[in-house]
Design goal:
193 residues, alpha+beta, Immunoglobulin-like, 2 domains
Amino acid sequence: MKRIWFILIIISTVWAQEKINIYGYFDEIIDNNVLTLTIKSENTNYVYDDDKHGILIINSDGGELSLKVFWGDMYLGHGPRSVTYRIGTNNSITELWQSTNDYTVAISNNPLDILKELYDSKSTKIILRTTPFQENPITFEFDVSELHSIVKKYPNHFATITPPSVTEAVGEMITRIIIGVIFITMLYGEITV
């Protein structure tokens, strides 16, 4: 009986693991909160005699977002890499992404567009593909089903991809009206009604 309980505990622990790992810290040098989300790919690719997972990395450095893909230690080559991605059932898009100094990570040039599309589409997956230097194309699929809950949990880090709330929109509109009235009053003098 103890063995059955042990096996059930292990299985439930594996099932309960989150798809997105969250790491956060305060960077004292730049006075910013840094939040990093890492998502392990659902599939593997054969890389240099071993099956490797890709890792999707979403980084928020005080609200400035970046999006990177670690291609499982595969050497991508020098210079920008052509990366094709597809979010849910949307059309696939091909862009040039920069690569890091070790040439195993590709960095998106416009992460806001991709993350906003991921958030708006309510899709649960993103598929990314690139062709490493003198190799066949590699494709990784990532489960992003938990992204909405994380964006809601950390709104300051993802303010650039989420629509403003009604309260914020009304507050901004009232602020603009007040500033306009003050400007007109200063420009033309006293307003009499």
